[in-house]
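2.7 Reproducibility. Because tokenized structures are sensitive to small changes in the input, we list the exact sequence used for Major facilitator superfamily (MFS) profile domain-containing protein, including any N-terminal residues retained from the expression construct. No trimming or masking was applied before prediction.
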Amino acid sequence: MQSYLQYRRLGDSVRAQLDHAYAQHNANSTVKKDPAPATESESDSSSSAENADTITNDDLVAVTSNPEPQPLEKYKTQRSEKTALAHSLAGVDIQKQLASTDQPADLFIVGWDGRDDPQNPMNYSFSSRLVATLLVSALAWVVGAASSINSGVLPQNAAAFGVSDVVGSLVTGLYLLGFAAGSLVSGPLSEILGRNVVYTTSLTLFMIFIMGSALAPNIGAQLAFRFLAGIFGCPPLTCAGGTIADLWNPLEKTIYFPMYAILSFGGPVLGPVIASYMGQTGVLSWRWTAWIILIMSGAILVLIILFQPETYAPLLLKWKGKQLRKITGDPRFRSEMDMEKIALFSRISGAMKRQVLITIHEPIILLISLYMTVLYIVLFTFFDGYTYIFTDVHGLSQGLTNIVWVAMYVGISLATFLVFPIYRWTKKEFTQAAQEVNGTDPAVDRHALDGVHTQPEIRLWFAMFGAPAIPISLFWMGWTDFESISVWSPILASTLFGFGTICVFISSYMYVIDSYSVYAASALGFMTVSRYCAAGGMTIVGIPFYQNMGVHWTLTILGCISALLVPVPYVFYVYGPVIRRWSRYAVAEESKA
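Resulting structure tokens (single pass, no recycling of outputs):
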């Protein structure tokens, strides 16, 4: 609905712009026809000079001598007059081409009318941008909750189909592998079809397969439907960073990307809480884990259709070019997207190839991907491990063990207290850079940051606070998980783990986006695929891992691995500019401007 309304508003904006251009031409033409007190020769000379100044370029002439503008559809002007019109429109760039049989000599490349163009997603009202961010966060929340909610009813699910708990854990593992598979194509698709089409179409198919998993007659059908649901559930996680970048400038992202991350991370962490007592009473069976996700997904789909605007600027410019061609009858109006002749499958295969190449050559991507992979391995093995940590050792019931996940989300929420101090530090960096470039203050003019760059390493501040918390929390949980020690000890340790994880996640995404600019989508694509592949595999082996190694050794090993990675954000903070200079893909600026 919002996308359709945007298309109509673009048409109205184009018509208003053309009306204004026609009116100006008509006014100029009328002025030229008024008698002047000068002599006839002087008048002719003056008129010729005025014409030369105002409507030259490709035989520029007035569109019409009629001072009353006519309906736009009635104007079927000559090519030179259309070229004059294109010159008079703000945001249209005339490009000369070599003469050929299939291309016109001139192309009119459509852009925004100016930096304050209200059709530009960056200039939407604050409320519209905030609602769009919250809706994407809600969408990411629900598909994240779907990844973990079945772990809360694992014993009931496995018993219903007569399989072991290890086989039952495939319900979560294959969903995560579906995330990895879908991430290969969802990013490129959002840059071809737009964000909204990908969100709405994928969510609709996601709901269909979630419903299929709810009705599955056997474990094979459930696993197949869960894998397919994972494929179509991944766009909110792979494309949301692009949506936020569409709406907020680099300084504003310091607030709104953490907001998205903190809200969306509640999905996988609180999924087991939703399923706390399902399947254990006669009220709701274990299959209601899928029905709950389906109901929430349907509600969010309705909200997205009604209120989510399209935010991908190149697609909006493509719509604007289409409106200009339709109204003027001139096929030379094009957008940058219209100029791209790459087929869909070629673009997807090219994106996949870039993901491999950028990973091979970039130590930043390799280490950050490894870091994120380790964190997701720990997080998703907890869905199996909490039974051993809390139920077996401390005797908590299945329902209470699921509720313990609230403590981790409390830790995630604590990262909110870092957002505003880090925003102030970041604002100081951007203000200095903006004043060096154009002498303006971003606090007064949000467009002052256009073309301004700071060191991407400032995005690592979140991780520098959170990284040490991860191994500390794992050692704390592993070495105090004894019946003789209060159950609150591992619970508080899980809170610290949640805080550290979200801080590293926020920094990882923001640092990669700022460091790799146009290649950020490829870098983030590999990060997504690698961590969900590893998490999906470890979810399946988590049960035998905890059974054979025991809680203490399992958490100690995971703590040691995460401790080895703690120096990563500090190393990049110090040596990041040098590493980026060596890179063939990364932004290499060392100065703040």
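Residues 351 and 582 are 22 Å apart (CA to CA).
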